[in-house]
Amino acid sequence: MAEYAEHVQVWIDRYKAAYAAAHGQDAATGLQVEYDRGWFKIGIGDHWDKNVRQKELAELCQNLEQRAVEKQADALDMDEYQALAMRTAMKTDGEKPAPEYLSLSLAGEAGEIAELIKKHVYHGHALNVHALSYELGDIQWYLAVMANVYGFDLSEIARRNIAKLKRRYPDGFSQEASRNREE
Ligand SMILES: [Mg+2]
Fold this sequence. Notes:
Layout: H1 2-23, E1 31-36, E2 39-44, E3 47-52, H2 54-74, H3 78-86, H4 99-122, H5 129-149, H6 154-168, H7 175-180
Antiparallel strand pairs: 1-2, 2-3
The protein binds magnesium ion.
Magnesium ion binds near residues 109, 112, 135 and 138.
């Protein structure tokens, strides 16, 4: 029986930790999780809003843990990323990396992606998604550095692009809208 109580406590602790990671420590302050005859009761303050079996509790934990991972991924915002990218930018032209070098490199990295896809489609190789993700990262790096050379924040570049696409395709992409767009 003591062993079972320990098992229950593990689930309660996991839920509380996942909740705090997903919503922040402050939001988790009043969180209560109790166990009673096969049911986990979950509440904030004195309001009980969930009554679940262990299987559902496991799903809730997984969802919260996933949300916490996504939240962490969001933490590297574009401008922060750009500043980090500049740390290793090669200075071939005085203080700034040369635009020629950057644009050739962007095309070169795009070529590396094309090569992976070509090998997959025409040579029967398994698509190396891991390698692909690194090549996308290389493109992102050159993009960030080139934007910096011309004085743009990466977030500004992203916002302008989204604004342009919203103008062109207010209802999402369609071939018809593409044929009839103004510029
Ligand atoms: Mg590369």
